[in-house]
TrEMBL record:
GO molecular function: DNA-binding transcription factor activity; transcription cis-regulatory region binding
UniProt feature coiled coil, ranges: none
One matching Pfam family: TetR_N
Assigned keywords, A-Z: DNA-binding, Transcription, Transcription regulation
Name this protein carries in UniProt: TetR/AcrR family transcriptional regulator
SUPFAM superfamilies on file: Homeodomain-like
Annotated PANTHER family: HTH-TYPE TRANSCRIPTIONAL REGULATOR BETI (PTHR30055:SF234), HTH-TYPE TRANSCRIPTIONAL REGULATOR RUTR (PTHR30055)
Segments forming domain HTH tetR-type: 6-66
DNA-binding residues: 29-48
């Protein structure tokens, strides 16, 4: 009979995030994650065959958590025009937790160096943009709002820019205004793939 697995994958991923925040993704080792989680290296290897697989799992979990949070904000709005983009704007009213900043910055560095990791984010962004456009009353304005919102979040997560709360709220109000705006000349290529 096989032995029951007693190591929680979430605790290993929590440990991996802590190591990424402390040491960076490029210097992450399976030994350091095991030590942080208080388990053996073999326990980490049981689920994650190498460093790359572990970092990919951290990226997938962060993406899934972000998607779940955004979806909860979309659902909380009830019946509104352009629910996907409006829910994502509402979700952005709560900036990333400060403790995730170091992890986000280090994961961005890892993504820049690894196409497989970038692929996780690229696929998620393509799916998100498709949902924004498919649920938008005005897809062109929603697309601009999406680009502005993602730009805001990226600048903050990379620690490039931060605004006082009142200015940030005003920026989000402006992004929300874009959802209904009618920019420029119409085009038929809203669903053109990003890559």
């Amino acid at each position: 009979m096989a032995r029951t697995r007693s190591i929680d994958q979430e605790s290993i991923l929590d440990a991996a995030e802590a190591v990424v925040a402390r040491d960076g993704a490029t210097r992450l080792t399976l030994e350091a994650v095991a030590a942080q989680a208080g388990v053996s290296k073999a326990s980490v290897l049981y689920d994650y065959k190498n460093k790359q697989a572990l970092i990919a799992a951290v990226v997938r979990r962060a993406t899934a958590r972000d998607n779940a949070f955004n979806q909860s904000r979309i659902e909380a709005l009830g019946s509104v025009d352009s629910p996907t983009i409006r829910g994502r704007i509402d979700a952005a009213s709560q900036p990333f937790p400060e403790e995730f900043g170091a992890v986000a910055l280090q994961l961005c560095a890892a993504l820049a160096q690894d196409q497989t990791l970038r692929g996780i984010i690229q696929t998620n962004q393509q799916q998100t943009l498709a949902s924004v456009l498919d649920t938008a009353k005005n897809p062109r304005g929603a697309r601009l709002a999406y680009l502005a919102l993602e730009g805001l979040k990226l600048l903050e997560s990379l620690d490039y820019l931060h605004w006082p709360d009142d200015v940030r709220r005003s920026i989000l109000d402006d992004i929300n205004w874009l959802v209904d705006s009618q920019p420029g000349t119409p085009t038929d290529n809203l669903h053109t793939p990003l890559v």
